[in-house]
Amino acid sequence: MNINNPTRTIWLKEGDPTIIQVIDQRILPHKLEIVDLKNYQEVVFAIKDMIVRGAPLIGVSAAYGLYLASLEAPEESTAFDAFINKASEELLATRPTAVNLHWAINKSLQAISHGINPQAKINIAIEIANKIAEEDVENCRKIGEFGLDIFKDILSRKNPGETLNILTHCNAGWLACVEWGTATSPIYHAHSSNLPIHVWVDETRPRNQGFNLTAWELGKAGVSHTLLVDNAGGHLMQHEKVDIIIVGADRIARNGDAANKIGTYLKALAAYDNKIPFYVAAPSSSIDWNIKDGIREIAIEERHNDEVKYINGWEGDTLRRVLIAPENSPAANYGFDVTPARLITGIITERGIWEASEEGLVGMFPGR
């Protein structure tokens, strides 16, 4: 993604490697604003308040958060380790559904533990954070290449000159990762290859990540797209206006069940009824090998009900919050739902396209 500057979603501040910089995603698409994160508590807030969001980016942000914690930690070894452990616990508590958070923190802690003294651990902390970020970029690039093959196959069965219509839900794009995105990576690869594509973009209530983030990304990249209210997808499928659905995932269970933004399950049901392929795109770090049944075991985040009852909008040069529901009515705000493996055509990872089942996923990682 190139929006002139920046070209990534998270980076070390030029001239001051003690500061992490990120895009404030809360105010997109109306304003592009860069936020300085100067300590791990600010990273905790950034993840909780969705300044940064998206499973892969949350993981990368947490790794950089531990690096900032290492800079703050006491110089004495025992106190240093205790401080890092405290920081990791606070980072882990920020978002319960995205497994990439746990994966990145555990990978960072394991690497840091090999340092022989605090300074060595600081050096390792930044090295592992940078490594996790670079791996995310490469993994998403590969996801795009594998997904592109699926797009080409579907186009080969359409009439010459016809457009491939893709539906996506929430934002599994560049903004949810470091570069490329997961569900959007094949889209960007297809666009770069001059394939005729069009993307239907779900609004994704209640935070509207589709309208605010995915549409902004696609517009910046010059990709043809149309905004949709969440409940329009089934209608389009019935009238053969959708060729493929591709979404991201915050956690994939061992059996192939996949948790993604609330509303994904309903899209999968409509896709199944209309015989439309439904793919999940995610790096292998999104697989939780310890969960055997995603529907029963994946923890679903319940966010504050104000996200349902209020909506944000841009007026003049100010982001305003407006009440759209009866003030005293209670509201439920489930952040995610789980799509059962039986509704998933395939899971696209950096290692290829796999069946949504334990056999398929273990085939990707023999010995798991």
Please write out the topology.
Blueprint lengths: L9 E4 L2 E8 L10 E4 L2 H9 L6 H18 L4 H16 L6 H14 L5 H39 L7 E5 L16 H8 L4 E6 L6 H13 L3 E4 L4 H6 L5 E4 L3 E3 L4 E4 L2 H10 L4 E4 L5 E2 L5 H4 L8 H4 E6 L2 E6 L12 E4 L6 E4 L2 E3 L3 H7 L4
Parallel strand pairs: 4-5, 4-7, 5-6, 7-10, 8-11, 10-15
Antiparallel strand pairs: 1-2, 2-3, 8-9, 9-14, 12-13, 15-16
Helix pairs in contact: 1-2, 2-3, 2-4, 2-5, 3-4, 4-5, 5-6
Biggest β-sheet: count, sense, barrel? 7 strands, mixed
Quick one: how many beta strands?
16
Radius of gyration: 20 Å
Q: Enumerate the spans where pLDDT stays under 50 for 5 or more consecutive residues.
A: none
User: What is the CATH superfamily classification of the largest domain?
Assistant: Translation initiation factor eif-2b, domain 2
Order of helices and strands: EEEHHHHHEHEHEHEEEHEEHHEEEEEH
Number of helices: 12
Shape: globular
Strand content: 15-25%
Describe this structure in words.
With 368 residues, the chain is of the alpha/beta class. It has two domains: 10-135, translation initiation factor eif-2b, domain 1 (Four Helix Bundle (Hemerythrin (Met), subunit A), Up-down Bundle); 142-364, Translation initiation factor eif-2b, domain 2 (Rossmann fold, 3-Layer(aba) Sandwich), CATH 3.40.50. It contains twelve helices and 16 strands. The strands form four sheets. The protein has a seven-stranded mixed beta sheet, sandwiched between helices. It starts with 9 loop residues before the first strand and ends with a helix.
